[in-house]
Design a protein that fits this description.
Glutamine Phosphoribosylpyrophosphate, subunit 1, domain 1, 18 helices, seven-stranded antiparallel sheet, binds glycine
């Protein structure tokens, strides 16, 4: 056989592969899947140096703060779920906290309503997402440091160093960052963002040009040399407080000194033979995910075809119920010790919920009780597995894309606007999108309710699926459907990620669906059942790993909705 024959055979082989196989990455020794190819590579390099999944996650998180600054961060917070190779699972909560000087009514005007203002995109928005008062006490550095102290193996400095180098030497500005650069240059009322992507000569960095962040490199050096204290004490802390004083922020040195990340017991559920571990409050993600999986377990999915009318209806009704419960019950567990978490995640509660689903018509969300939350849609998730079989699922965020947009030019990083995730107005729950239930009202030192859902599914007591997504409230539902796709519909991780997603969040009473992926006939049938449908370009940006134990291989998949994301294995 000559080279031409070989080429034709190879070409035919490629043609014969199902389309979905193309986004799978295979590896035996380790895998990192993140929203940035550069950051995934940083994680893999750490694994190759002998680091474990926690080490690689810390290095990847710092790298994302440099290469994916819309959500990767040191000025925000998030959650980490860790399962070791023996299946022992824990979580680290590094969600931001309300400053001690915050008050429950701090975002209300004289009439007792939530004021509005102009956000960093030049759009009208509620005031709890705007300006220095929207900044929660950042948790990322404390969370990563705690993870390292408990489970890391390589020296801390080795994990921060790669990001210092990327920030100092720069990297080619990708299309998404370039678009942000020109958008903010023309539009943003926030000065820091207008200057964020500029070169030394004051010009905006162009697409493909090297973008350097020297101030961020210096900040990261402090963190490299002094660990947690490099951020919460000393030069960085002083500069943060100076910034707050100059811009009307309320975070004080006491807030920084007292901030702690905490290890929490994961929320656990089962679906048939699988065990599901996810984030407990202050995230609502784990509780809602388990509630919905329990509801789905009661349906005979063998008779319900994926993407059919019955499928969309059932999934939407499960979502409607879980989001109503989320709004009613959930908030920071340190302030709400009596939340009914066991009940919400129990099989018997799911049965009650399931029994009230009418498979012929849509339920009606009761607008007098609950409404939507204003969670931001920009967050980032990554999944990591190492050679020994340890797994990390980490989601962290600045809340909105580029957070508050505010930052100090001396420090080079962006502050979150996470205070907008609290319920801003007591007892005010309405159809236009506000929740006023008490569990998530703003209180000093409290962590705001989140939707982040970093999740690990175990099979036979070992990691099987590592998954998560950005997307505000849609996170819970996109993770739910991806897990369901693998566990109930036997999809590979990449198929499950790319498959059609819907989103229903109780109120507004709407099924959002990924446009082009739901047929006109199905939409018509759903409308006839009483559903209202609205399309979305896409839902979720899932980054996942599946373990094929039979063939001893890790399968990584990065959502095609982010062209800069990458699953890298070795
Ligand atoms: N900031 C988005 C979330 O925590 O769900």
């Amino acid at each position: 056989m000559n080279n031409t024959h070989l080429f034709i055979l190879a070409f035919l082989f490629v043609l014969m592969q199902p389309k979905d196989v193309f986004s799978q990455t295979y590896a035996r020794n380790g895998m990192v899947v993140s929203s940035s190819e550069i950051a995934s590579q940083v994680g893999i390099d750490i694994l190759k140096k002998g680091g474990n999944a926690i080490d690689a996650s810390i290095a990847t998180a710092f790298a994302l703060a440099v290469t994916h600054p819309s959500a990767g961060n040191i000025g925000g917070g998030g959650f980490l779920v860790f399962m070791d190779s023996a299946g022992v699972t824990t979580t680290i909560d590094f969600r931001e906290k309300a400053p001690l000087n915050a008050t429950t009514d701090m975002f209300l005007n004289d009439a007792g309503d939530v004021s509005t203002g102009t956000n960093l995109y030049g759009n009208k928005s509620t005031i709890n997402h705007i300006g220095a008062k929207s900044i929660g006490v950042p948790g990322t550095v404390a969370g990563l440091y705690l993870a390292h102290q408990k489970f890391g193996s390589l020296p801390w400095a080795d994990l921060v160093q790669p990001s210092i180098e990327i920030a100092k030497n720069g990297f080619p500005l990708n299309w998404g960052l370039y678009r942000a650069a020109i958008f903010f240059d023309d539009n943003s009322p926030v000065l820091f963002l207008r200057n964020y992507f500029r070169k030394d000569n004051g010009e905006i960095t162009q697409f493909g040009e090297i973008w350097k962040q020297p101030a961020l490199a210096n900040t990261l050096k402090e963190i490299r040399d002094h660990g947690r204290d490099g951020f919460y004490k000393g030069r960085i802390a002083k500069e943060i407080i100076k910034f707050m004083e100059e811009h009307g922020g309320i975070i004080t040195m006491v807030d920084l000194e007292q901030y702690i990340a905490v290890e929490r017991k994961p929320i656990k559920g089962t679906y048939k033979d699988y065990e599901i571990y996810s984030m407990p409050p202050p995230s609502s993600g784990g509780v809602a995910l388990i509630e919905m999986m329990n509801v789905m377990e009661l349906a005979n999915l063998d008779t319900i075809e994926f993407n059919s009318t019955a499928y969309v209806h059932l999934v939407a009704e499960a979502m409607r119920r879980a989001f109503a419960d989320r709004a009613e019950y959930l908030g920071d567990s340190d302030f709400n010790p009596d939340m009914p978490l066991d009940k919400l995640t129990s099989k018997s509660f799911a049965k009650e919920r399931f029994n009230h689903i009418d498979m012929t018509k849509a339920s009606v969300s009761d607008s007098s009780k609950f409404g939507q939350l204003y969670d931001g849609t920009n967050t980032t998730h990554f999944s990591v597995m190492d050679k020994a079989g340890n797994a990390v699922s980490l989601t962290y965020t600045l809340e909105h894309s580029y957070g508050s947009g505010m930052g100090s030019s001396q420090l080079g990083f962006i502050f979150n606007n996470e205070m907008g995730d609290f319920n801003p107005q007591p007892n005010m729950t309405n159809n236009s999108g506000q929740i006023g239930t008490s569990a998530n009202l703003l209180q000093p030192g409290k962590r705001m309710l989140s939707s982040m859902t970093p999740t690990i599914v175990a099979k036979d007591g070992k990691p099987y699926l590592v998954i998560g997504s950005p997307g505000g409230r849609t996170i819970i539902n996109t993770v739910f459907q991806t897990v369901l796709n693998v566990l109930a519909y036997d999809m590979y991780i990449d198929q499950a990620i790319e498959a059609m997603k819907i989103h229903h969040q109780w109120l507004p009473d709407i099924i959002y669906y990924e446009k082009m992926l739901l047929s006109p006939d199905t939409r018509k049938a759903l409308e006839a059942m009483g559903h209202t449908l609205v399309d979305r370009d896409e839902l979720g940006e899932l980054m996942g790993i599946q373990v094929d134990r039979e063939n001893n291989v890790l399968i990584g998949a990065s959502d095609s909705s982010n062209p800069n994301g990458a699953a890298i294995g070795y």
